[in-house]
Amino acid sequence: MESIPNKDKQEIADKLKEASYDEMKMQELAKELRDRGYDPAAETIDRFRFDLWNYKAYPKAHWKRIRTTNVIERINKELGRRSRPVGAFPSDQSLMRLAGCIMININEEWVTGKEYLTMDVE
After folding, report:
1. What is the pLDDT along the chain (122 residues), one digit of tens a residue?
2. What is the domain extent for residue 23?
3. How far apart are CA 92 and CA 116, in angstroms?
4. How far is the CA of 112 from the CAs of 8, 71, 83, in angstroms?
5. Contact 78, 106 (CB under 8 A)
6. For residue 109, what are the CA distances in angstroms to 49, 68, 89?
7. Does residue 12 sit in the same domain as residue 42?
8. Are 40 and 3 spatial neighbours (Cβ–Cβ below 8 Å)?
9. Do 77 and 45 belong together in one domain?
10. How far apart are the first and last CA of the chain?
11. pTM of the full structure
């Protein structure tokens, strides 16, 4: 939306919202944007449309959880927190053992704790 003039932003935003439910409409919108001279916006649509359809392939209840990388960031933070006191590891195997133990603990919490995503068919 950055490359679109303010006078056209609302119109394009409405069309984008409508096109987000149909892949053909999304392609038509990208073509329309190119015809109107908004090539950067059309390129953005072309670049991210496959990600959008992958995202929308999940059940709507999952969208809130998968739109961020918080889970991965939390795991990386935990790995850093636990490996920082060690400093330098004597070997690659010792690092892998520590990381493996941490990942096993995180996995056990996920298996026995609250469900993050349920893959039940709705």
Report:
1. 777 778 888 888 888 888 888 888 888 888 988 898 888 888 888 888 888 888 788 888 777 777 777 788 888 899 889 888 888 888 999 989 999 999 998 888 877 876 666 666 55
2. 6-57
3. 32
4. 51, 17, 25
5. yes
6. 35, 20, 26
7. yes
8. yes
9. no
10. 34
11. 0.50
Contacts 24+ apart (CB under 8 A), 96-104: 102/78, 103/75
User: What is the amino acid identity at position 109?
Assistant: E
Task: Give the ranges where the chain is alpha helix by DSSP (H).
Answer: 6-19, 23-35, 39-57, 63-66, 70-83, 92-112
Give the amino acid at 118: T
The closest of 9, 15, 51 to 31, measured between CA atoms, is 15
The residue written with tokens 């961020």 in the block is 68
Tokens read off for 19: 């096109």
- Within-domain flag for 106: yes
Residue 122 is assigned to a structural domain of this protein = no
